[in-house]
Structure formats: structure tokens, C-alpha cells
Amino acid sequence: MRTDIAILGFGVVGAGTAKVLDMNAKEIALRTGTEIYVKRILDLRDFPDSPYADRVTHDADEVFGDKDIKIAVETIGGAKIAYEYTKRALSSGITVVTSNKELVSTHGVELLKLAKENGCQYLFEAAVGGGIPIIRPLYRCLAANKVVRIAGIVNGTTNYILTQMKVAGISFEEALAQAQKNGFAEANPAADIDGIDAQRKLSILSTIALDGTYVAPSTINAQGISEITTDDIKFASDIDCELKLIALFENREGSKPAAYVAPTYVSRESLIASVEGVFNAIMVEGNALGESLYYGQGAGAVPTASAVCGDILEAAAGNVMPDSRLWEDKGDAIASFDNVKASIVVRAPELPVTAFAEYDVEYLSGAVIVKSIAHKDIEPLVSGIPGAKWMHYLK
Amino acid sequence: MRTDIAILGFGVVGAGTAKVLDMNAKEIALRTGTEIYVKRILDLRDFPDSPYADRVTHDADEVFGDKDIKIAVETIGGAKIAYEYTKRALSSGITVVTSNKELVSTHGVELLKLAKENGCQYLFEAAVGGGIPIIRPLYRCLAANKVVRIAGIVNGTTNYILTQMKVAGISFEEALAQAQKNGFAEANPAADIDGIDAQRKLSILSTIALDGTYVAPSTINAQGISEITTDDIKFASDIDCELKLIALFENREGSKPAAYVAPTYVSRESLIASVEGVFNAIMVEGNALGESLYYGQGAGAVPTASAVCGDILEAAAGNVMPDSRLWEDKGDAIASFDNVKASIVVRAPELPVTAFAEYDVEYLSGAVIVKSIAHKDIEPLVSGIPGAKWMHYLK
Predict the structure, then answer these.
(1) Complex ipTM, two decimals?
(2) Nearest C-alpha in A relative to B20
């Protein structure tokens, strides 16, 4: 048997997908009982030196009008052309597999519905955590759990920068320049360093954790790392922590769900504190499973292609996601950031005990952990203490 | 819709399964579109105080003769009664879900075949890593990868003992007694401390990594931790390692696959070095994905039940594992332990440079890492060095 697929956008991940399908063709055929054949590659460019040169087309009709093509891999990125092509594919009954977190987080509600209406699927294991299996474990393996917390390092660029700042003792600007030189940050790094990429991924994870109640990226407060100083990094060691950009989702009994992205002091007792460089790690707490962690390469052509191919093979094997996987925009999925209670660390030359009288606190050398404080109450508290600075805290 | 199930053996995991199904009944019904109803519980005992008292039966015919029962949860353990009941259930077309690593690793070939012949399934996500999703990610998410290495801490009892030996500076015997007192080791701890439990789990993982070429537990060399001394533990710190009981599978280009269980100095650069207490962690390296890690609670009633329930829900939703999942006993799946090359650490009061002339080595303070040496060559090498002791090494 043969399953014909198309790749839309033959960039890093698109070409990586063709490479993985080719390098493990024997195993894939054995496991799925079908050969996966890349019939068409849709791109604006030509690739005369590629072994796939003869399959490249610039004409979308050749892809979407081809009844043999059952699966389209959307690795264009962004939410413009990718959006149009994804709608066209799904409307034609072609299952779409993607690594495009921007598109999934922005238009997932509509695209999942469109897939359902046309008897096909919209799959995006690769959109969060690159190659790390996380979407399918959440849907399948944790199906008997209520997800009470997700805490993830979901952006490799910022984790690389924070690791370099620590290891080499350099400033944010120097570390960013180094990341750009080494290919770990883009020329325009805003989406990564401002936490936008993490915000999109958290939107997807939170929506799944809430059984499809859509958490729009725009409703997730995101703070990036561009204002992190070498002092902030050094201080982490003083309190036995590592400074990480954490995407946090919480859904505790008695509170409205919360989701935000923030630089966070993570206690070294937690395994995610040890995650360095471009690696990603996502801690998921289920009410039955307890804490579990998924770790691996969060980006890169071949690792991300590994996740894309996992989805392709599921679709080729005819394994269908349940209807409960549809998303619904109810408009008010998470609590307002101001009202969300967080754990924070406050440091200052002098920390007056009286300032914290009404809070449950833990004193460290030169710092105080305030265990639960609403975001709106943080500035009033901290502004009253000369030279004080605060940051989120995660145990 | 309602799906009727039976639980065979109402012990820790069996009762935990009923508990998880009950506590998350609303979510489960929403996600799978079916209510999971525990119709029968088969056990020798009665449970008059249990809310399930009226469903308990001692008569196997009441379970296997009941056409309504589609899924049986086998949480009896062992490979005797559990084996008979599993065969009976599968022969009746009833899907069996289990946490029984002994049975899966011993009779998996036959039981998977029997399931296939009778149009049902034999599912065992909970048999390895307790609640940690590992079996399904291996089958599904890494479907486009060739698995080149698995390195796992798969036994919580031994990891707890090793952690206690380190933290409290106590002997193996003291740590074992403490583990027994705290319920983390059984009265007869042999299966855990001798590496038999890890051997069974590694048999399952290796067989899956080899696409169903069965690796019998008896062919896996297993060394336990009962001879580990406090000196061995202390020495780990000297070389920036942690001592862990590691279940290792390797399948590199040009070598026959290898699988063995051994106490191992794990470099602190590796995330699994940080895994403490009863937690489990499994590092899987795929040829596309690179390294990935799965971490969580490897035992315990409710975490293990979380994995059991994941399988129940998959079966209830009608998601079927592919035929490639069948196992086949070809009799010669892995290399003879003597011929397998390993990395080891040799320590001795004096380490003569000449002894290692023919090996690729790295000198540490008071120790040498021999990067690749066949097991059969280790004793001849080490016995020539006065006071020398060796251990496996993992970077």
C-alpha cells in the first residue's frame, strides 16, 4: 500500500520531514503497513539540487486538486498563506499535519471544526516541544487525568540565552548576539525573547488541558527575558534556583484556570531547573498521575520532523482523534492576570518583616518567598521596599 | 453509551483503577463519549466495605461468560493465575489491559498473538514506568524513528535505596530496611534489588524498540544493587556522577543490539542523574528525534492506575494498535553479554597507565573511564590492578 502526501513549504522542517521519511522508510513501512510517498512539494522556490526536484510545484491546484493526496504537511509558518492553504486542504478532505504554533494557536478552533466537517484531521504534535511527544500523551495517555498544572520550558532560544548568561557570565545582549551567530535565534528575535512563541505554545497546551475550551494567546499574559540582568541570573544561585522562562498553566479546585509566561526562579529540586541550552521540557501534573516530565529537543529540522512524521503515520494508519478534541471559544477561559495568585521571590538590600505580615512567606538569605499573592498586589507591596526587585518562583 | 469492564484482582492497582475511573468520570465520559462501568470484580476475597462490594465475584465464569464485558483489567500480578485468566479473556474476545510486567515479558509473544486472533487487544502501558507514558509514545510518537538507545531508571525501590544510601550515608542493608518500613520495598525484595523487575521491563522496552523481535528476560544480563557499598556511592561524587541502577538497550549501526541491567555511574550532565527516590525516568534516543526523556511516578496505586485507565480509554474509543505490534520470538535478538562493549569506570589506589594502553580512556582523579571494552575483557584487565574495582558508566 502507498499513502501519497504533499509538503507545503520546503524549508527547514519541510525538508527535514522528507529526510526522516526517507531515512526510516523501511521501519515506517513495516510499522504502518503503508509506504509514505511525497508526491508533491509546494513552494515558491525551485530546488534543482534536491532529490525531490521533480516533485516541486508552484501551483497549489496540483496539490489540492490531486485526489491521491491524503495528507498535507504544512511547514510554511505564519498565519497568512499557511492559513489559506490549510483551509483549502481541509476543505478538500486532506488531513493537515503541522508544526505551525502561530496558526494552531490563532485559528485552531476554526481549523479543527473544518477538519471535522470534511472527515479529515488537523494534527499538530510538532507545534509544541518540537520533537518531544507531548500533544498525543496529553490526549491519549493522560485521558483519565484532570490536568492541574503544566510548567514548561517551551522556547529553546530563550533557554539558550539564559544558559549562556549564566555559564559565561555575559549580558542579555551578548548572549542574544551569540545565539544569533550560532543559529539559535532569528535575525528578528522578538517572537522568542518577548515570550510570544511561548505564549502560543501555552495557548495550545492550556486549551487541551481544558478539554478544548479555547485559551486565546491574546488572553495569556506574556513577559519575555529582554530585561533580565546578570544580577538576576547570579542571584538565582544564591537561592538554589535557576532562572528560566516558564509557561505556566494551573487549574486547581476552587480557582479559575490561570495561564501566563514569565521569567521564573525554579528551585533546583525541580527537574526542569536542570534543563539547559536549546532543550525543552514540559512538566505535566495530572490529578491521578501526579507529576510527569517530557524532555527533548524543542526545535531543529530533524527532531521537529520526527513529530511531524509521527502525526503523518497516525493519519496514514487511520487512527482518528476523538470528537472531544474539537475546540470551542467560550471567550472567558482563564482568570484575569491581575487576580491570579502566584508565588514570587522578593529581594532587596533590607527586607522589612512588617511588609509581609499578611502573607505566608519563607525567608531565604537576602530574599523572601511570598507563597501566594495576587499579581495586582505585587507592585504595591514591592514599591514600598527600597531597592526591591521581584520575580516569579516555582518549586 | 456505556462500556462495561471487569477488574481481575482487586489489590493496590486494581482498586486504584476503580478509584481513578470514579474520580474523573465526568472528564472520561466527555473525552471518550462513553461511560466506563466496572461491572464485575474478580477476586478470591470479599470487600464488604467497598462501594464495589456488590460487583465482587469469585466465579470466573461470571466475568468471561458475560457478553457485555468488553475490557478486563488484569491486576493480579505474577504469571500463573494471571496467565490463565488473560488467555481466557483474550480467547473470549475481551481486550485485556494490564500492569503485569512479569506476564507481558514472559508470555507477551503468545498473548499478543491470541489477542490478534480473537479480534481484541492486549495493552500494557502500565507495565513499564508506572504512570509514565512510555509504551504508547514509543509506538505512536516515535513511529518514524529507529530507537538507537534506551537508558532507564525503571525500578523505584532500588532508586529509593540508592538515594537513601547517598543522602543519609547509610549501608545497603539499612537503606533496604528503611525502604521496607516506608512501604517502598516488599518483604521479599529479591525481584527489585536483584534487578529482575528491571530486567522484565527492559525486555518489554527492547522488544518494542526492535519492532517486535522478542527479547526474552532470560537473555538479558541483570546485576542488582545488593553488593553496592557506601564507598561506591561516595566515589560517585568524586567523579561528578550519581550511582543508578540502569536498564540499558543499545542498537547502533554495525553492532548487534545489546540489553542489560547494571549499577552505573551516570554523569551529572545527564538529566537522569538527577532522578531521586521512587521516581522513574526513561531516556529514549531516536535517530530522528535525538534524546528524549519521560519522567514520573514509576509505581503507586493511583499513578499506575492512570496508565491502566489510559489504555482502557483507548480500547473503549476503538483505537486499535497496528498489526506490526505483534511480537515474534526469533531466539537470538541480542548480542551475548560477554561480547557487548560497554563504558566502564575503573578505580584503584594506583592506576598503571600501561594497563589501559590499548583502550580509549579518560583519566579522572583516582579513576579511569574506559570508553569501550567488551564485558569479557573487563575482569582480565581489572584483576591485574591491585585493589581495583569497576562499574558501568553512562554519559
Answers:
(1) 0.93
(2) A288
